[in-house]
Model the fold of this input.
Amino acid sequence: MIALEAAGLRKTYTKNGRPLEILEVERFAAREGEFITVIGPSGCGKSTLLHIMGGFIPADAGAIRVYGAEVKGPGPDRGMMFQEFALFPWKTVAGNVAWGLEALGYERKAIDETVEAYLSMTGLAEFRNHYPAELSGGMKQRVALARVLAFNPKVLLMDEPFGALDAQTRETMQEEVTRLWERTKKTIVFVTHDIEEAVYLGDRVVVLTARPGRIREEVAIDLPRPRSLEIKKSLKCHEYRNYVWDLIRSEAQRTS
Done:
C-alpha cells in the first residue's frame, strides 16, 4: 500500500528578479512501513521537497497525497522533525511530548498514558521533569522524536535531524531511530547529506540530481534488518556507500 506519494511536483523561487528552478519530481512513492532516505548534492532541493510533503511550503504544480488524500497544508497525518530541536524551552520534557496531544484535544488521562509510554520507549522517563536547557543535544532530539511519535502520525518526515550532533551522538541516534522504526513500523522519509547515514537507515536511498532536483536513481538497500552499527563495517555497506557517492559526485561535477 502506498502511504505517501508525490506527482508532478514543481517549485521555483525568484532570486534577483529571475526564476530559480528548485524541484522537478515526476513521481515519488513511499510504501506503508518503508524507511526512505533522500540525498543529493548541496542545494538540490531535498529539504524543500520534504517541506512540501509536510504542507509547510506550497508547490507551484503537482500534488502530495497521504493514503490517497491530497495534502493542503500541515496536518496530524504527518509528523515533522526539523534540523533544529524545535522544543518549547518553558516546557518540561513531559510537557513537550504532551504538546501535540493537547493541541489535538486528547483527554488528560490518555495524554498522560501516552506520554509515559513514549518517555519509556525513548529512554527519557527519568528526565520527564527536566527542561530543554538541561539536556544534551542527543537528548533534545529524543524529546523531539518522542513528541512527534506520541500523536501517532501516519508518516514521519525527518529533515536532517542529526546534522547538528557530534559524530558519536549522531551514531547513537541513528541506532535509536532504527530501533524505534523497527518497533513502530512508521513510514519514514528522512532527508540527509550524510551518505553513510542514508545507506545505514534506508530501505531505499532516493538520489536527487543537482538543481532542479529530479530523482536520479532509487537505490534499494539489501542489508539485513534489524540493523546494528556493526553493519557499517561490512563490505556490502561500503559498496552501497561508494555507489551512492559516485552518483552524487557526478551530479556535482555536472554543475561545476
Q: What stands out?
A: Strands lie at 2-15, 18-31, 35-39, 61-66, 69-70, 78-81, 155-159, 187-191, 204-208, 215-220. The radius of gyration is 18 Å. The chain has two domains: 2-77+154-255, 86-152. The longest strand covers residues 2-15.
